[in-house]
What does this fold into?
Amino acid sequence: MNQEARKPMTRAIVIGANSSIAQSIIEQLLADSTVEQLIAISRKKTPDLLSKFGSKLRWICCDYSEEAIKEVCGNLNASEKDFSHVFICNGLLHTEQITPEKRLEDIGAEKLQAILHTNTIVPMLWLANLAPLLKSKVDCSVAVFSARVGSIEDNRSGGWYAYRASKSALNMLIKTTSIEFSRRAPNVKLIAFHPGTTDTQLSKPFQRNVPEDKLFTPKFVARSLLEIMENLDRESGAEFLDWAGKPISW
Ligand SMILES: NC(=O)c1ccc[n+]([C@@H]2O[C@H](COP(=O)([O-])OP(=O)(O)OC[C@H]3O[C@@H](n4cnc5c(N)ncnc54)[C@H](OP(=O)(O)O)[C@@H]3O)[C@@H](O)[C@H]2O)c1
It folds into this structure.
């Protein structure tokens, strides 16, 4: 029997599916014959992926408002079950109006709110609304994209107030959810995942001082994450893991 024949079937949901890392996850999952179904959710569809992998891939557009997230999860709950993998990839570091803060004078309520909304509130709304859908007899691994800079212990260089705080808060929400899931949905394993500095639109303005061998491709990070998810310790609670599968202190 080959290795793929022994692997259980994969049914996956990828949220924030237009992230460069998410796109690589989708491509790699869809190239794997053990993947039965993939639901991609984003603000806009990616026609390229749809034309290449149409039959296994279902794309749902969502504006990430609370009502829209509830509606998407309610509809999925009525028709789908036994998901084995969930990826929540949303994250925002900068926009035309927002640059990560270097000093206290850069703090602004609107900027803080925008970053906290995308990085903390949106992923948590997905986790909360997906809960009834994820509880099943099938092991389910949920990777929520965090960042090492969200580690309170590891904060040595300061700055990036909003982004750091949004990922620290996200980590707390993930850990708290995992405690509730241990009673309500013990088949679900949660990880807060740090992809490492990856060559995407999010990191573009901050790549100058990153050594070449520390700037990862989305393809590499996607492959690493999929491997990590194959080998998780399902008995421990939520974990904060980097791209190499190494724990990061919360
Ligand atoms: N790249 C890095 O070096 C790095 C390092 C550490 C952590 N991360 C984390 O990795 C994750 C993936 O990032 P990436 O590098 O692949 O970035 P990316 O290509 O810029 O993707 C951005 C992601 O954020 C979502 N997003 C952007 N603006 C949003 C908004 N206003 N409301 C809701 N969602 C919004 C997008 O959703 P749509 O699909 O709907 O467009 C997409 O999923 C993020 O959580 C990021 O914080 C990245």
